Amino acid sequence: MKRRILTIDDNAALQQFIQRTLTKKLPDHVLSFACAGAEGLGMAASEKPDLILLDYGLPDISGDEVCRGLQADEATAGLPIILMGRQPDELKRTKGAFENIIQTIPKPFTADQLCASVTKAFRSTRNSPPLNADTKSGTAVMDALGTGKDLFAAPPTKPASKYPADTTRGTLLSVLLELERDQFTGVVTITPSQAAPLELHLAKGRPRLVTTRDAATYLACSGFKLTPKQAEARDKLSAEQTKTGNPVFLYFAEEKLLTRRKALTLCAEQSHRLFAALWTTSRVKFAYEANAPLPPLAGDLPFFYGKVTDWAVESFKLAGQDLSAPRESGKLFSLF
Asked: How many whole angstroms separate alpha carbon 68 and alpha carbon 171?
């Protein structure tokens, strides 16, 4: 009998790693994936997986809130969890608070460590009775987590005036580190001298998208060669990017001129390519808007898997290069 494993993690690269590893080494399993805590709660209730791989740091609610939601529903209270995360103390604390967490696995982990953890989890739960639920109704999940907008509310951020207005008061990297430390969620508009403003979207301090309202600027450093049909649609789609900030690649996907997967990859790469130019700019100005939403088509963009310094290094590698030169997408550098 095949067993079901649900992974709740917002990082596309890690999802691919888990799928590739478990499909190869443990083929007698059915895998499914959720990119956020609320989505994972819904899938857990509908799929009743035999095991959940849960990331502590999710874009909407934290891993311990997901555990609380699972325990609040009688249908999911007994589902065993392997909790993943980068902070050992955080993992230890959360495991002690929830009896349905049977293991923790620190990130990053190897394929062998993943398989060993999954195998051990199934061995330990094979004859275990279901855990007791604290409530009799699935409707208690939302009450346990907090209803309405509070469920997805971003952590409080410092007033915009507390952050540097330009790089005369702090370096570009110091600003990124401060935003990470405060778990800033929203958009930072970065305006270099004599260049189009860039919009850096962050979720809990993690970069998610760099875009610009100027599609010509966006494409100029992409090295992406348009097909005839894409070139024909460019003017109309460029006007849409001016309105919303949606990268033109996402519009290409909407118009069936590019696959969605390819568009997301290009957007992730382009975030680094756009940001690279800032490292060689003498002065940039900052404007902050806490809790500002992503552009409408960008909701499923993956988060960068790592610390903001790792993300900054990836863009810094490109500083000074000719980014207008044609290249093959996905082969330029390792995003994760």
From this structure: 40
Whether omega before 108 lies within 30 degrees of 0, making that bond cis, reads: yes
Amino acid, res. 222: S
Residue 162 burial (CB < 10 Å; 0-12/13-18/19+)?
exposed
Give the least confident one: 104-118, 146-160, 214-228.
146-160
HSE-up of residue 170 (Cα within 13 Å, Cβ side):
14
Helix then strand count (H, E) for the chain reads 12, 9
Q: What is the dihedral of CA 95, 310, 269, 300, to 10 degrees?
A: 20
Q: Can you point out the beta strands (E) in the chain?
A: 3-8, 29-34, 51-55, 81-85, 101-106, 186-192, 198-203, 206-211, 284-290
* C-alpha to C-alpha distance for 3 and 317, rounded to whole angstroms: 43
- Give Rg (Cα) of the chain: 22
* Full set of structural domains in the chain with CATH: 3-152 (3.40.50.2300), 160-316 (no CATH)
Residue 131 pLDDT > 80: no
Query: 212-255 pLDDT, tens per residue?
Result: 998 888 888 888 888 889 888 888 888 888 999 999 999 999 99
Closest CA to 216 of 199, 231, 201, 194: 231
- For residue range 270-303, list pLDDT tens digits in order: 999 999 888 888 788 999 999 888 898 888 787 6
User: What is the spatial order of strands in the sheet that 186-192 belongs to?
Assistant: 206-211, 198-203, 186-192, 284-290
